[in-house]
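Weekly sync notes, structure subgroup
Attendees: PM, AL, DS (notes)

Item 1: joint prediction request from the bench team. They want all two components modeled as one assembly rather than separately. Inputs as received:
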Amino acid sequence: MRVLVLGGDGFCGWPTSLYLSDRGHDITIIDNLSRRKIDIDLEVESLTPIRPISERLAAWGEVSGREIGFVNLDLATEYDRLVGVLEGIRPEAVVHFAEQRAAPYSMRTTHTKRYTVDNNVRATHNLLTALSATGIDASLVHLGTMGVYGYGWSGSAPIPEGYLTVKVPTPDGEIEREILHPANPGSVYHMTKTLDQLMFSFYAKNDGLRITDLHQGIVWGTQTPQTARDERLINRFDYDGDYGTVLNRFLMQAAVGHPLTVHGTGGQTRAFIHIRDTVRCIEIAVTHPPKDASRVRILNQITESHRVLDLAKMVADVMGADIAYLPNPRREADENDLQVRNDQFLALGLEPTTLSEGLLEEGKQVAARYAGRADPTKIVCRSVWKAGMETASDLITKLPAQA
Amino acid sequence: MRVLVLGGDGFCGWPTSLYLSDRGHDITIIDNLSRRKIDIDLEVESLTPIRPISERLAAWGEVSGREIGFVNLDLATEYDRLVGVLEGIRPEAVVHFAEQRAAPYSMRTTHTKRYTVDNNVRATHNLLTALSATGIDASLVHLGTMGVYGYGWSGSAPIPEGYLTVKVPTPDGEIEREILHPANPGSVYHMTKTLDQLMFSFYAKNDGLRITDLHQGIVWGTQTPQTARDERLINRFDYDGDYGTVLNRFLMQAAVGHPLTVHGTGGQTRAFIHIRDTVRCIEIAVTHPPKDASRVRILNQITESHRVLDLAKMVADVMGADIAYLPNPRREADENDLQVRNDQFLALGLEPTTLSEGLLEEGKQVAARYAGRADPTKIVCRSVWKAGMETASDLITKLPAQA
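Output from the run, pasted for the record:
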């Protein structure tokens, strides 16, 4: 299939592009390289040394014999160029990763709040408008987030896949209605994904666009079999307080001799997925487009749920690390239970990669290999959800000598 | 109270600014005059001759002895200037009308779809971010729309004011949850108001902003006691297929000798409010800010519901006009019932101005007075919801000689 991968240079987009290419699909990446540029502002880098996009693509050509196209284009502002690319390629599927994806970054400053909304909303809406205007019948696969549901809203009921059947009182008795699960976003970033949902819903209904929205859990892991084939293909490994995700941060912290940073009580339960499964899920979604174009298909892209503190304890036990309890800069419940349905991906053939010592060890090894690149002053989370919230000082400012 | 009126040059914003000023509030208008500029692109004008904003403001000073401030500022793009105005004025309330407000215009072209989203979402979000960042504790009153609810979703139950209590199934039995009424927008414009709702909800919860969202029905009427005090203060009267609202269009059509244009069967039932009540509702909302800052207060700003065909027949009977049935360029149900709760405004003292022959006649008189300014080729609605939908030819291209 001809597949356009929007945001194909990022943490999920890059391994997805390689995986789809490896599976025989014809891939073109659109990316404005914004993720790399944000690193410049934050004065931080991926722990793994990522190569320029053209070198990445050339390396992939060398090791795979397959070509991936690339267009440097800003989806939020270059609508006409987007239309040109769509008309030139006429993709059968478009995978949309092209959004600012870090909750802490989205809460960091008024600039980053505004950037997150302006970029994410316009990127999604431009894409929807362009697909409708060109009449290109590509199925659209969008990376959403479990965070649209919030935590603890539905009592003991597992979180359904996007839709919820509820009873509504009327003078003639209760009626059943299927609704989009109510939005309970926990940050400006998550909020933009709830805005996406309403835009998808409208363009599916009005324009018949075929849309799959993937509500993904927290991704962990770094490498896939494709990114591991050459060091120039290595995937990002974010460890900083804004872009690092919790489990990868613990692995990096264990690798560099930093205490494991639990912000808050650690009672937060979240859903997780390994990057290897992310890329598989995307291919499943791409190759199984929804049949009903009037209704957005929503799948929960997760494989397991864990309490943050349990993860910290597991990593601490296995790898010999201390745990540091730090103030939580987020406004969220101290503790929550979480069960999530993921029946649809299982039915479509996903075989979950779950937490194992082997995979944790692999993650730690990747981190250890590049430990010398770490800046320990970037580890503590300090983007607060509201002005005046407490944050922690650096726990260490120099890395211990590595073994 | 010091009140900032965003979009204070528009159809609802202008009479609201004058009314609030007349009631003794200290008003500053922010407007980028976009509504006037869109008229230039559409090659149409308000039926009533509206004067430049500085002349309007000078005339108000003359007749009332009261000054209204004005800042020409684009909310969607001039964030820093917005912050400057907020810090300079330190308003106690902000009334937010500054959004593209026509459903047909929002569906007209890819440009207008994108403009509607880019403008409305960024204007609202910039405002929320600025209120949060400056710490100015102004209550925010936003003009939303009944169209966020859609029509016919809740069976025989009246549409509640924003929130709905539903029963959610869980393994431990049903639980009750109050949810934002599910969004069922009928156009890109209406969609932006559903996006606003989610942004309001987040900023109320996270930042404690005090927000009132007014879900307004279709406005009719032109003049208020304030705009009628001098011809230079006259309010807009839009009659074109994009910006004209249904009842005002019927009155104008009757006045100029054009058949009354019913697009579709006329079985659509909609909620209405007279412009005189709009301005009263805004003052009620401004002077009664919500007590609970963590939850958006939502009020339905409507006074009555009518079927479009019943309105056409009433105007046709009273004023002697024909009815023309034209293709409906919108994707909407042919027919629907509608009951709407508006208990909160009634409890806060609103005395509804309902449909009466006197008010209809007044509307027709305003239209008749300026009939010579009408362009009959702008009357038929032709902005289609999806490419290829049928539209009607002009019914007349020259105005009949006026009596």
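Discussion: The two ends of chain A are 47 Å apart (CA to CA).
Action: AL to compare against the crosslinking data before next sync.
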